[in-house]
Amino acid sequence: MIRTQSGHRESGNATWTAKSVVVVMLSAALLAGGCDASSGERPLASAQPGSAGPRIEFDTTAGRIVIELDPVRAPLTARHVLDLVERGYYDGSLFYQSLPKRFVAGGRRAADAPRLAAPTVRNEWSNGLRHERGTIAMCRRIGDPRTMQRRALQACIDSASAEFFINTMDNAHLDLRQPDGAGYTVFGRVIAGMDVVDALARCATTRDAANGEPGMLIEPVVIRIARRAAD
Fold it and tell me: Rounded to whole angstroms, how far apart are CA atoms 200 and 21?
């Protein structure tokens, strides 16, 4: 489970509590031990014919990851992420959380990094893209319809800004509408470096000392530079 500074949730059709939360119900099982670059995972789903889009490259301290964006089905999010890359927002940011065979999360700036603004982007969750292994989606807050007015709920739905997660398995429950009425925007897929992503999912983790959040990387992986890659 990934969450913001406040709140906690469990997702799917399931239970949740809290003010506002980011992303996902995921297994609480965590894998101790160091990063293991070997991978026995099944292959990624094949790309749709003619679906090639702009590519971005994360040069990380664990290796290189290349993402192909989908500006046809997620045009606002694809443009938003490209803008962040071009502004240097992701340079020095972290992959900070993982749950084995579920997801890895990144795009969070370190606490001691210079503050940079990241605007929010409208949710595009109903674009037909699925949370399949190797896809990338935006983190966002989840609103509580029991306590929040419509405007506040909509603000949560459209709260994605910079943090993202990469699915390391098919997470079909994330394709479902969440309690506040929307899901999470998938906006691209990994086309190179999935072995690096799988290694991140096997890195040593701990619980956050402040809030008990599971799956926090003991040694976060740094995105040294993010750039637009050659198509």
Answer: 23
Q: What's the domain count of the chain?
A: 1
The conformation of residue 201, written as its DSSP 8-state character, comes to: T
Residues 117 and 47: their CA atoms lie apart, in Å, by 33
pLDDT one-digit tens code per residue, 145-172: 999 999 999 999 999 999 999 999 999 9
24 belongs to a structural domain: yes
Give the residue among 229, 74, 230 at the shortest CA–CA distance from 164: 74
What is the phi/psi pair of residue 211, to 5°? -130, 0
Q: What is the pLDDT of residues 21-79, one digit of tens each?
A: 343 333 222 233 345 444 444 444 444 445 589 999 999 999 999 999 999 999 999 99
The pTM is what? 0.81
In a domain? residue 21: yes
Q: What is the CATH number of the domain that holds 167?
A: 2.40.100.10
Q: What is d(CA 217, CA 221) in angstroms, rounded to the nearest whole number?
A: 8
**Amino acid identity, residue 101?**
K
99 near 207, Cβ under 8 Å? no
User: Is residue 145 helix, strand or coil?
Assistant: coil
Take residue 191 and report the two structure tokens written for it.
């086309």
The residue segments making up the domain with residue 17 are 8-36+54-110+118-229
| Nearest residue to 23 via CA among 112, 118, 147, 108 | 108
Pairing of strands 94-99, 205-206: unpaired
Question: How many Cα atoms within 13 Å fall on the side-chain side of residue 58?
Answer: 31
How far apart, in whole angstroms, are the C-alpha atoms of residue 203 and residue 164?
A: 18
